[in-house]
């Protein structure tokens, strides 16, 4: 156990684990070698959105191990080796959703069921993995270049730790309701926009043993990832999405071969479940 300073508060954290974070980026708008790249996006993210986001996570210091993965890499950057060594994945995608292979999505889904955390940022609302996890269209309204204020509507939630009642985000893409998602476990942040829209900007879900956080800010040409509160929210979400049961749990429908009562009476410590599939 060690103490660390986060913001102005003291917190004590169990330091016997390290959170392995993979930041996944489709890397299109922000890739200078891509013919439809955006100069504005490259200006905001000179080393790619994955590096901008990875730097946010790296601020957590030696309690995290950060790697990045990109869509154009083999297996969309998500090989078995990467997936097996990821506790929390952060996802940024927009125009390349359809280029993520269904087999890769299936593998990410299985990892989440077994306890991998997932943070979906901004336009990731339309990613194959987020739509599969929700079982809905995940559609919404949008308009570029609006002014956003974010409200903290669940101040007791760990992801809201250190975040004021509201903060000014500035210029960001407006996302509007109806946001067609499954009913969230919690709505932590709500966005207000100067064009009259509101949005459930920060929502949590649980699927299997996986903890999922969706967060709306992060349009590629805006500076939201440089906002200190946005950074703090993503860092809090890395902690919240981490599941120490990760890698030790298998979901399935096993038959009970030896009952727990039988095992207790007989002092049987062996396998009592049988997986038939
Ligand atoms: Zn956007």
Could you name the key traits of this structure?
9-stranded mixed beta sheet, 277 residues, two-stranded antiparallel ribbon, globular, alpha/beta, 13 strands, 7 helices, binds zinc ion
Strand and helix map with partners:
Blueprint: E1 2-6, E2 9-13, E3 19-25, H1 39-44, H2 49-58, E4 64-70, H3 80-84, E5 88-92, H4 102-113, E6 117-121, H5 128-134, E7 141-152, E8 166-176, E9 186-193, E10 198-207, E11 210-215, H6 228-241, E12 255-256, H7 260-266, E13 273-274
Parallel strand pairs: 3-4, 3-5, 5-6, 6-11
Antiparallel strand pairs: 1-2, 7-8, 7-9, 9-10, 10-11, 12-13
Helix content: 10-25%
Structural class, from secondary structure content?
alpha/beta
> Which ligands appear in the coordinates?
zinc ion
**Poorly predicted parts:** 1-15
Q: Strand share of the residues? A: 25-35%
Across the major sheet, the strand order is 4-3-5-6-11-10-9-7-8
pLDDT averaged over residues: 91
The number of E-state strands comes to 13
Number of helices: 7
Largest sheet: 9 strands, mixed
